[in-house]
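User: For a benchmark we're assembling, each entry needs the component sequences followed by a predicted structure for the full assembly. Here are entry 17's components. Please fill in the structure.
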Amino acid sequence: MKRWKDPFPQTPKGFHDRVEQTLRGLEDRDMKQSKRYRKLTLALVAALIALLAIGAVAAVIGNNQLKDELSDAGAKDMAERVQDVHLADAGEGFNFTIDEAVWEGDDLYVSYTLSVPEDGNTYLVGLLVPRINGKPAEYRVGGYLEDGWTCSTIALGGKYPATDTFVKPIIADSRELELKDMKLEVGAAFFKSNRPLQYLPGFYNEEGDYAHPEMLVPWKSARFKTTAFPDSDTLYYWDMDECGAPMVDLWMFPDVLEVLSAEDAEEKGYAIDMKDYAFSDRAITPKGLDHTGIASLAAERSVSLPLNKDMVSHDLYNGLEKNTFRYDGMTITIEKFRMTHFKIETRIWLLPDEGMPASDEDVDFSRFPELLFYVNGRELYSALWGGTESMRNDTRAFCWDYTYDGYVPLGDIQSLQLVAKHWDEAKREFTDEVVIADLTPILDTAAAEEEAQALATREAAGSWQPGDPEITVWATKGGTYYHLEEHCSGMYSAVHWDISKAVEDGKKPCPVCAGGKPGPAEWEEGEDISCFQDG
Amino acid sequence: MLQADFIQRVRACERRLYRVARTQLPRECDCEDAVQEALLRAWDRLDTLKNEAYFETWLMRILINQCKTFYRRRPPAPTELTEDIPQPEPEDAPLLEALMGLPQKLRAALELHYIEGYSVAETARILAVPEGTVKWRLSRGRALLKDALNGKEARP
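Assistant: Structure for entry 17:
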């Protein structure tokens, strides 16, 4: 990159003086505070020593990143719901701590801390796929070690930071969550890197395409007209997190590909079948990564979060009062719009006035814009999943099925805009952003409130005790359960009952519609339910 | 980081602080206030800087956030310099004028990348936006700047 000549005038004297004045002021201020800090430091040291003795250091050095990020985004109501968890599994210098957790709908966000020994070695650390009640959780966000697609690790130790903090969404199955409390296991694997790390920035190739090292693997390099990466014995990375730790994606390394493509990888425990859980077909395991020789497994650390459904927030907007708009010779219909504090899930159909071509091959994809959402002027980022490639065969409309990530201040939405931009292939750049619709005035607050009310009723019905306010429920005379839905699970001939009468009659809340818990027969054999007592 | 190191490193990037602030805020007085607030905030939150190698990008991000706060509080109004405050002569007045005429988002990206020399990744980190957004802003900014310098109307 050629830097431009500095076009600015000389630094004005007033600016220089203010910088100097401020720096001098720091010295004065620091002296005044030094006594207070000394006392505080002594107190903290004492506390730390005491905690060291009981092996719970991580419990107090946890971060508040999640709370801070939510507050910074204006979602203070959600920030207040964040729970300080501070569950740690630490030993021999390897530490994994869940610091905070907050649920909303089917999203669990956690902030966590990773630490490695300060012994001069560089460690690659990868998150293990979270497990719910012992089974891999269905998740939609990549970035786990056992993820064959990205095989993401973070490098810590050596010349990089030995401790790092993160915020990450962990996606669970909401239906399961609503039915019962559960145990979530999250953890990390720590590997001693056997290869040097080197920064290899992205670049523009001869054709003006932006290339990352991931495009330098032999089978991709031809397409991007670049040479394969120079030394396969080096771990290249092209980005670092805010703490300065390199983010090393291993999926493109030949050794990893070799393990993942081996027919017997699953038999040997080097890979697991992920088709039922995520978008990857096969994921590498810690044992598999160790087998590649890239890095040696040094430790695994994990913690279990006993999760209570009462922790779940269900604040959301579900729908818009108006959902059809016109833009650039096409009709845009928002079929699905679900907004929580953390994301907007959408399914949007775009139908050109001239209709869609009969064949997918004839579709001119440049005809369709990229769609963005801005909340209070802040862009939400479209996530990796969803896709523009799917089309609905019956209507031959173009489908934009995306989820947008970001912090949404649900309690204080000043503006919500649907915005379009097009990719201009000739100029190789996006066009200006155009606001398709200002959705602010048409947010269906009534529907949101109705849904919140329904959830509250469901929770009240599920935990109803004599003396609680009366609720009208549906039940059949000889039925086991009382319901909130008249035709729950195909039920017919149900009639209205007062909940007090239904409980008196021995009926229990329906696990499907009335917030009840499944009976023991519905729990898996051998499952320890005693750990689900408390959030 | 010791206070002496902090002071030394701030002094080393004073020029850069000025340019970044000036790109964000058209009034010199606001730039001074913003840098003061940013330095105080940076010192108070020094514990959030995990790696000293990133001191500058971290500080620039704080400064830009501070400038945004100032911008929201006091939207820029055209001001004329009085005769008793001599205006320093810019090194490249046409470029500066064209740059300052760009939308703020594009201006910031261009300034950080092409004048301060930050990489796309660093610029993205400072502006707290994805790298793709930075690349788009650079591309769009270059096009608009080129038009402005050639005396053309901005392309739609």
